[in-house]
TrEMBL record:
Record-listed Zn(2+) binding positions: C3, H16, H174, C178
Gene3D superfamilies, sorted: Hypothetical protein, domain 2
GO molecular function: DNA-3-methyladenine glycosylase activity; metal ion binding
Species this chain originates from: Culicoidibacter larvae
Classification via SUPFAM superfamilies: DNA-glycosylase
InterPro entries: Adenine_glyco, DNA-3mA_glycosylase, DNA_glycosylase
Name of the protein: DNA-3-methyladenine glycosylase I
Record bears the keyword Metal-binding: yes
Cleaved signal peptide residues: none
Keywords associated with the record: Metal-binding, Zinc
Coiled-coil spans in chain: none
Entry superkingdom: Bacteria
Amino acid sequence: MICPWAEGHELELEYHNTEWGVPSHDDRYLFEMLILEGAQAGLSWLTILKKREGYRAALKNFDLDYCAQIDDEQAAEIFVNYDIIKNRLKMQAIRKNAIAVKAIQEEFGSLSNYIWHFTDGKPIINHWNSMSEMPATSELSERISKDLKKRGCNFVGPTIIYSYLQACGVIDDHIIACPYHTENR
């Protein structure tokens, strides 16, 4: 039995089976998930998965240097030419977050080092029987959210960061009956 949230659409199932809850230390992927999770605010994850390729094309596969220098003119062109969420604040957050991530990389050596230092490099493996047991936030997501905001990031509230930690495998929230739970793989 897989996690029920992934049963609605093939994109959700693919993401669930190959990415969600799998520990990642790849800075490009970690940045991609930070941007996509922020883009999801107020929307469904399926909406974001459907627009993921549009984001990859618009942001040159989430190239950090490119994203850090997007100006208003480029943002307007991206809105017209790519299938992304058409929200100016979320578009501005891409640049702000890229600049903040570059500073994090300079300070910590990588975005991975920064994210994983909060858990001493070890994933948190939860043991939920059902999705209803799963929280929307945690002390960890609140702490990271606060720190990212202090560093200049936007769209990084505790709920967004909890989802981000799930996406990056810092937290494994697969239900225990799911074959993709860490202890079942």
